[in-house]
Amino acid sequence: NLQAPLPDLTGIVRNKNIAIKLGKALFWDQQVGSDGQACASCHFKAGADGRVTNILTPGLLRVDANGNPDPDTEFGGTVPPSPAATEGFTAGNQVARANITLTPDDFPFHQLVDKDDRNSAIVYSTNDSATSPGTFDGSFGTVIPRDLNEYCGDPEGNIFHTQSNLATRKVEPRNTPTVINAVFNFRNFWDGRANNIFNGTDPFGRRNEQARVMILNGRTPELARIDLNNASLASQAVGPALSDFEMSCAGRQFADLGRRLVSLQPLAQQDIASNDSHLSDLVHPSGKGLRASYAQLIRMAFEPQYWAARGNFVIDNSGSEPVLVSNSQGYTQTEINFSLFWGIAIMLYEAELISDDTAFDRFRGCHEPSCSPAIEPDESALSEQEKQGLMVFIDKGKCVNCHKGPEFTSAAIHLQAENQEEGLVERMIMGDNQVALYDNGFYNIGVRPTKEDLGVGAVDPWGNPLSFTRQYFDILLGNNAPDPFDVDPCTFEVPVLSDLPCDSAQQTNALRDRVIAGLERDAVDGAFKTPGLRNIALTAPYFHNGGAATLEQVVEFYNRGGNRRGSESNNNSGFGDNASNLDPDIRPLGLTAQEQADLVAFLKALTDERVRCDQAPFDHPSLTVSNGHLDQDSNNDNRADDILITLPAVGASGLPFSQCWANSGDLFNQGGPL
After folding, report:
1. Which segments of 560-626 does DSSP mark as H helices, in order?
2. Residue 495: domain span
3. Above 70 in pLDDT, residue 24?
4. What 3-state class would DSSP assign to 315?
5. Are 86 and 79 in contact (CB under 8 A)?
6. Percent of the chain's residues with pLDDT above 70
7. Is residue 446 part of a domain?
8. Per the database record, which ranges form the Cytochrome c domain (predicted)?
9. Amino acid 33: pLDDT
């Protein structure tokens, strides 16, 4: 009975139920993206992906010693530390390139002679990632209203191509996280760049000072700011739609997407079950698509001041303040505001995707006010092995230190309120036994060397740090920070001063003095958002790089104390001036083989059967996705032909039991309709 934290949409949304329907249509519609790409194309299995072909991408997020981009465009073993013979190959000895089908032998991406000893000889190691294929890499050309096609230039295929050099779909640089329960994250994306505040246009909240939407003030069209709290899902939703790795030709704008979609029949090419939990009353008699156009759904869902203006306009961003200009060749208000409609509608739909009914939930019961009537604990809901695994999770495994609360993540909203135990910034002893400040819910656990991906230690397009910790340092030094937030040093695990009772002003002043003197450090480079663990057995591969194919490999990683080399005192997980950013709990755990098996069994008990079987609210329209390419171009479009697979439409009752996804925690044992 978790309640989704959402912004106050009074004055923007006029009919929430219609907005949810609009959001589901936008999320699943293959007409939305370039090259037939929908949001759901990478989120169709338990809110994540499950493909194994054309999912390999090289280390494109690598930086140099100064933190500047230094992408690695070559696939295969990273030499050193990987042996020289592995260069250009996967761990399973395939030629590493785009469009290959990975096998169990290719995982994990960091392999040792002794999997329990992180300092044993390295057999294989790569900065490649296993993620999701998106679009081809052509540049955006134009759209024609009512035309199903989008016109993009020929792809270059410099990195992603077949053996005969035909362009393939590009593959994203990070593993695809699930959208289920993502509404509880204070920030979204692995690096947290999907801001808690939605500005109506892009993922960056108040960081984008030019962000405006168009409103009708009486009868006068003008520009206005949108500033919606607890709307990270909306910030996240507007990112992939224009990403040339995920859903778009390079250079497409939201107004172009709006121009293409507003007059189209939603989901026109896809089947919808007659008992779809959200769309059943709108299904077209043919069973394909909806009876209303996108324009009609927008008008029913949103207040007229956001779509009723007459005429065409452009937004001039050349000056210090954006200016709305009437232009007969410009865009309608609906098209200009399409990012607003898109973000809010998809946020409201994804807020429906709450998974809270697992064997663990029944074992635990619920006497919270949200549970009415109360749910009594059921001791029989967990097996004896799962109960032993729960004890490992809480105690010897130290899992609960980061995967806490009902969401099983410290990146969740309710755990980050400043008036509770922890805030957005925390100060604690790190893996090298030295104190540092860090972003709560974001940890460097030593999966890969920090320089390969800075995570929350990176910056936004305007050069501002994504990290709240680094913004807090700027504030202490008298500078401005783009994000609005407060920090109470009295909530720190390790306060600056040991005086009791704690005085926030005194603590802040003491911390400021230490920052000015260069005595305080941060631990944010190479840190990533802690994922929730609900349905984890359905969402392989694991980690931000997708470098583990099974839950067993994940547990082995933690049991040996991560992938970094050296002793505890020789911590090499940091970057730049920081010798260590490592989470203090990443050290050898000493779990027995039985304890590891018990822990995996408990993690599988976090699966919601509704998610496993695509039952309401997790049901969906049919979806056709790319599953690699043939090395041929039969239609002469300079793109390798897609190999397509279609998932059937599923109604509220879900898949037949025999077709449900396997609760395996194994990328290569998925079951289901794939």
Report:
1. 593-604, 609-612
2. 359-405+410-529
3. yes
4. strand
5. yes
6. 95
7. yes
8. 18-129
9. 82
Q: For residue 417, how many other CB atoms are within 10 A of its CB? A: 12
Helices (H), 485-530: 504-516
Contacts of 314 (CB under 8 A, 6+ apart): 324, 325, 327, 330, 331
pLDDT at 378: 94
CA distance 69 to 128: 16
For residue 373, is the peptide bond before it cis, meaning its omega torsion is within 30 degrees of 0?
Answer: yes
Query: What's the pLDDT score for residue 22?
Result: 99
Please provide residue 355's backbone torsions phi and psi, each rounded to the nearest 5 degrees.
Answer: -105, 115
What phi, psi does 316 have (nearest 5°)? -90, 110
* DSSP assignment string, 400-417: GGTS-TTTT-TTBGGG--
Question: How many domains does the structure of the chain reveal?
Answer: 1
- The pTM of the full predicted model, rounded to 2 decimals, is 0.95
442 found inside a domain? yes
| Rounded Cα distance, 210 and 362, in Å | 48
Place of tokens 């009353």: 281
Q: Are residues 258 and 238 in contact, defined by beta-carbon separation less than 8 angstroms?
A: no
Residue 541, in any domain of the structure: no
**Phi, psi angle pair for 114, to nearest 5°:** -120, 110
State pLDDT tens for residues 520-566: 999 999 999 999 999 999 999 999 999 999 999 999 999 999 999 88
Peptide bond into 489 cis (omega under 30): no
**Phi, psi dihedrals of residue 542, rounded to the nearest 5°:** -120, 160
Place of tokens 């995707």: 353
Q: Six-digit token pair at 634? A: 């039969």
Give residue 2's identity as a one-letter amino acid code: L
Q: What is the DSSP letter of 528?
A: E
> 524-543: b or e for each residue (b if 16 or more CB lie within 10 Å)?
bbbbbbbbbbbbbbbbbbbb
Q: What is the Cα–Cα distance from 347 to 199, expressed in whole angstroms? A: 13
**pLDDT bucket at 421, cuts 50 / 70 / 90:** very low
Does the structure show a pLDDT above 50 at 419?
A: no
What CA–CA distance (Å, rounded) separates 181 from 355? 6
Residue 428 main-chain phi, psi, to 5 deg: -155, 175
Residue 389 in any domain: the answer is yes
Residue type, 303: E
